[in-house]
Design goal:
Length: 277
């Protein structure tokens, strides 16, 4: 996969943030050509190798990829081999380790969630939400794609998502969907968030592409999904809000089209990577 120019620029911004006015410690370290290895210290689903290799190569360090993004690693495993100036390696390594740790942490969570859901409801897709670190959304979403789940909207222009704060300015959910369709026609997917079964049925009258059941209990979700389908709603039903690994299996039993989980990014623990000369 080729990194888009916007992602490359963002990566260089990350690197420059860390370098500041220059690595003053490396500046006084005798410069030598050396080899080094980056490896994971624990099991994970690997993500961020492409980004890390790009940063090293950009800084004049040869980076050989030993394990590809998406690899399931069982424990201590080398993922990148480096060769070049020790000073140039030192200038990049912490940024690379942070990228690998964050992206692999998200990918690992995503694969775990996908496994739980598909064991109960094979046709249900798992999705991220927009709860990402500012400036890091592209990389969180790429980690999700590597893990085989839906990254959700890349940005606010991608689709219409009518949330509760938007609906406050419309007579009802159906009217909000109709307004979106008048504005965008079929050029934008339309999703509407609802908080009660009654509101879901009202929204369904306007035939949005997706109805999101927000903060329903697992039992409420099951009843409402069944009710929508009984009443002929042919769009997708998404469950979101308050879903975590403790209750994920119960929500999957409702057999929705999508389950979106903010916890895949907000609760992702960085995978432990290390560097050895």
């Amino acid at each position: 996969m080729t990194l888009p120019s916007t992602a490359r620029r963002r990566l260089l911004d990350f690197l420059n943030d860390d370098l500041g006015r220059g690595d003053v410690t490396s500046a006084i370290t005798p410069e030598k050509i050396c080899s080094a290895t980056i490896y994971t210290k624990e099991p994970c689903v690997l993500a961020g190798v492409e980004e890390s290799a790009f940063l090293f190569e950009h800084n004049g360090v040869k980076a050989k990829v030993l394990k590809k993004d998406g690899s399931a690693l069982n424990g201590k495993t080398a993922v990148l081999r480096l060769h070049g100036s020790n000073r140039k390696i030192f200038g990049v390594v912490r940024t690379a380790l942070n990228l690998l740790g964050r992206m692999s942490g998200v990918a690992t969570q995503c694969v775990k969630a996908k496994g739980v859901v598909q064991a109960v409801s094979p046709r249900t897709r798992v999705s991220l939400t927009r709860k990402t670190i500012p400036g890091f959304a592209f990389f969180d979403k790429k980690a999700a794609v590597i893990a085989g789940i839906n990254p959700h909207r890349p940005d606010l222009s991608a689709m219409v998502l009518l949330k509760d704060h938007h609906l406050k300015f419309f007579p009802d959910a159906a009217k909000a969907v109709e307004a979106a369709r008048r504005k965008w026609g079929s050029s934008k997917k339309i999703e509407v968030e609802v908080t009660t079964a009654k509101q879901a049925l009202d929204a369904a009258k306007a035939k949005p592409g997706v109805i999101m059941l927000d903060n329903f209990t697992a039992k409420e979700s099951m009843r409402t999904v069944a009710l929508l389908r009984k009443n002929g709603f042919r769009g997708e039903v998404e469950l979101s809000g308050g879903i975590n690994f403790e209750n994920l299996r119960d929500y999957a039993k409702a057999k929705p089209d999508v389950i979106s989980m903010g916890s895949l990014t907000t609760m992702a623990r960085a995978t432990d990577f290390s560097f050895k000369l």
